[in-house]
Amino acid sequence: MWGPVLDLHGWITQQIDAAEQHALDHQRDPSDALRWCKAHRKILTTHAPAGGGGSDAYACEGCGYNGADYCPELNVEHVNDCPTLLALAEGYGLTKEQRAALDRPEPERPAPTGPSLIPAALAEAMYGHLLATVVGVQPVPSPRQRALEILGPELKKISGYLPSPSSE
Ligand SMILES: [Zn+2]
């Protein structure tokens, strides 16, 4: 069947829709089938991606949390791996091949180029202090410090040049 690639949750939703339509179109009394469809939709409502844009946005909310109270983690990291949904999908005839071809949306990772919350100069100073205190070694000068050491005398010849306090 051609169409958008669905994740496990979407695939089951599609099967339930089709089963419901089939029951309405072809069964003299579709009430049993419709009741099953309704029950399955309730399972889908419970076992759904946690959402929220965090790193666990696609974790299964319905499978619950584990771990310590101060740092709970969702038990099933991706809703495609939810055992309840996989059992339901098995009932709708999901094959191994179909499962492998399912979409697996992942949360967007924060861009690694974002500015640090700690200003670079402060981080550098903290790092140097840490090295000197804990390890007992003097930090290797940063490329900026090295450049200022080398270029400093030349820069001071330029009128209007004001060396920054940290470079002295
Ligand atoms: Zn689940």
TrEMBL record:
Location of region: Disordered: 97-116
Record field: compositional bias (Basic and acidic residues): 97-109
Protein's recorded name: Uncharacterized protein
Protein's organism: Streptomyces silvensis
